[in-house]
Amino acid sequence: MQQSICEATTRTTLRRMGYNSRRPHHVPLISTTNRKKRLQFAQAHQNWTVEDWKNVAWSVESRFLLRHSDGRVRIWHKQNENMHPSCLVTTVQAGGGGVMVWGMFSWHTLGPLVPIGHRLNAMAYLSIVSDHVHPFMTTMYPSSDDYFQQDNAPCHKA
Questions:
Q1: How much is the pTM?
Q2: CA 140 to CA 58: how far, in whole Å?
Q3: From its record, what is one biological process in GO terms (predicted)?
């Protein structure tokens, strides 16, 4: 058969079959090795109680954008309204900047939130550990029955 199929007909047929169109969710890329390590961690800790997890302090690094510059925005407008102020999204050079922070938390409390003015390399991470992690852990867990949990970022291997 050499029939062409209209794009609109294809979309309509897919919707009738229960499919919907949307942008894909963004998820971190996890290597096969790290998938195995995560599974091993989950299996090793699957029987932990809430009391066990209360002895864990977690850390995380996050980047917060000061302006929305890393996604698509959709608008609806009438003909000849495309330059109306309500139909515009302002931009700035270099994306508008952002701030990177490192923080930690536990069942009991929030820990320090540390601004990071540059890339977090091994030396900067070791400085954070000595200046913030050790004091937090010795204060929150004086009996040393605690765990400090971090992700598998390269600088954490320092």
A1: 0.64
A2: 13
A3: DNA integration
